[in-house]
Design brief:
Elements: H1 2-20, H2 26-33, H3 40-51, H4 54-57, E1 73-74, H5 89-106, H6 115-136, H7 145-152, H8 161-171, H9 183-186, H10 188-211, H11 216-238, E2 245-249, E3 252-256, H12 258-265, H13 270-273, E4 274-278, E5 287-291, E6 304-307, H14 310-322, E7 327-331, E8 337-338, E9 343-344, H15 351-355, H16 363-368, E10 376-385, E11 391-397, E12 409-413, H17 414-420, E13 421-427, H18 433-439, E14 444-446
Parallel strand pairs: 4-6, 5-14, 9-12
Antiparallel strand pairs: 1-10, 2-3, 4-13, 5-6, 7-10, 7-13, 8-9, 10-11, 11-12
Helix pairs in contact: 5-8, 6-10, 6-11, 10-11
Length: 457
């Protein structure tokens, strides 16, 4: 008994000491505990939550009714792709936009570009981006913000549209039959982790050599040797990229290089024909922004976008869909997602009623507190308009396989679109002149660690 009393006293003393430093005192703890009333309703909720998923308990049954899959305007989808256990949604989405153009242009039943081919060069280019960044920052201390960011992010499998455009314009495209998927391309975590570990080792070696007075030219030579090691790792896991191949289209067989294949069948200037727009209410609208190091290729283009009100973005999306043109689209897909039905709706789950409190941050506040950000890219391909031309819902072609969601697609309400849509890539012909004029101005440059860094998975 005496021992128990001593422990109680020690605990009270500890709580009192903490309170002096902003901690929880005994009195404060008692007030906090009083918020839990131990009512019969609380007991019932506890029993339910202790053994059941919160999302299951919060499912709003009212949202299941009166939801149809009809759309007033829809671009024809030609087969659902599957990124498997990889973070390559950005690549699948970009290539799906382009394959829709090729299928329509040549009257094909179906076709698919090789994601594996592009991913190989994506990883090689990202390795070079990191190593060159280490050389560029060699005189900065290890605790410099940029140096820290580089070592925290040596490589990854996520990305964005400028990666798609820079890679294709530099290396071209090949059909999926020419360079099929491998286990490592479909399960990218292991390979990226190993390459990232090796790159960190190489980065320290480059910094050590620079500190000993090694000249930039010699560091560049060492970098090339290091990239040879990375290339071998990629070739072993993904297969070595093809240099030439034969391909038949509508009965005509011809030999191609990856670049000649792209130039003959598509040939778009992806860097100049497309505009990237963003809805970020935490920053000024009608302003152009550029995020440092937000690119896949060192000599490529940083993610540069025009920040616009959501209604402006919707008008461009509607114009593109009405003209049978799919769009690269990214969002915070995990929020209020009913994955089984393939429905994104802010009313899917009622966490307020379940927890007896509200979750009231708006989109701006969620961005500022890192509660929301773009996490996944998909292909926007349908909109359902009311009689006044206002959107009621939207549909995207996803890359999680044909059995995921609604026949491989996701349907989102317009309210969800407002809250969790972030980025759209639009062909210039659908972009108003006033927006194109903004792109002519010098962009506001944001650091690599900005919350809007584009790394969709």
């Amino acid at each position: 008994m005496k021992k128990e009393m001593t422990l109680v006293c020690l605990m009270a003393m500890a709580l009192g000491a903490q309170a002096q430093q902003g901690g929880i005192s005994a009195d404060m703890l008692e007030q906090i505990q009083s918020a839990y009333k131990h009512t019969t309703a609380d007991k019932a909720l506890h029993n339910a939550m202790a053994g059941t998923s919160l999302s299951v308990l919060a499912r709003n049954q009212e949202s299941l009714a009166n939801f149809n899959t009809d759309f007033s305007d829809k671009v024809v989808s030609s087969g659902i792709t599957n990124q498997k256990q990889s973070g390559r949604c950005w690549l699948f989405t970009g290539l799906n936009v382009l394959r829709a153009q090729m299928i329509a242009r040549y009257g094909l039943k179906e076709m698919e570009f090789s994601q594996n081919y592009c991913f190989f060069y994506d990883q090689l280019e990202k390795a070079n981006l990191f190593l060159q960044g280490i050389i560029d920052t060699r005189e900065k201390p290890m605790d410099d913000k940029m140096v820290e960011w580089l070592f925290k992010n040596p490589i990854g499998d996520g990305g964005q549209f400028t990666g798609v455009s820079d890679l294709i314009l530099k290396y071209g495209l090949v059909p999926s039959t020419v360079m099929p998927e491998t286990y490592s391309s479909e399960h990218t975590d292991g390979l990226s982790r190993l390459i990232g570990l090796k790159l960190k080792e190489f980065g320290l070696q480059l910094r050590d050599e620079a500190a000993k007075g090694t000249k930039p030219e010699a560091l560049e030579k060492r970098k090339t040797e290091m990239l040879g090691t990375v290339y071998r790792m990629l070739a072993l896991a993904l297969s070595e990229p093809v240099k030439t191949f034969t391909y038949t289209v509508n009965g005509n067989t011809k030999e191609y290089t990856p670049l000649s294949f792209y130039q003959e069948f598509l040939g778009n200037d992806l860097n100049n024909n497309y505009v990237m727009v963003m809805n970020d209410p935490s920053r000024d609208y009608y302003q152009c922004y550029e995020i440092d190091y937000d690119r896949h290729v060192y000599d490529g283009k940083n993610w540069t976008y025009v920040n616009l009100p959501i209604e402006d973005i919707k008008q461009m999306a509607i114009a593109s869909i009405k003209d049978s043109t799919m769009l690269y689209f990214s969002c915070d897909v995990g929020k209020f997602m009913d994955r089984q039905r393939g429905v994104l709706d802010v009313n899917n789950f009622d966490y307020d009623s379940l927890m007896g409190t509200t979750f009231g941050m708006d989109k701006k506040q969620r961005i500022q507190t890192f509660a929301s950000g773009s996490s996944h890219a998909m292909t926007l391909m349908a909109v359902d308009l009311d009689k006044d031309g206002k959107p009621k819902k939207w549909m995207v072609e996803n890359s999680w396989g044909k059995d995921s969601g609604y026949q491989g697609h996701m349907i989102m309400t317009d309210e969800w679109f407002d809250e969790y849509m972030f980025r759209l890539v639009v062909e210039k012909k659908y972009v108003p002149e006033k927006v194109l004029d903004i792109l002519k101005k010098k962009p506001v440059r944001l650091p690599a660690w900005d919350p809007m860094f584009a790394d969709e998975e």
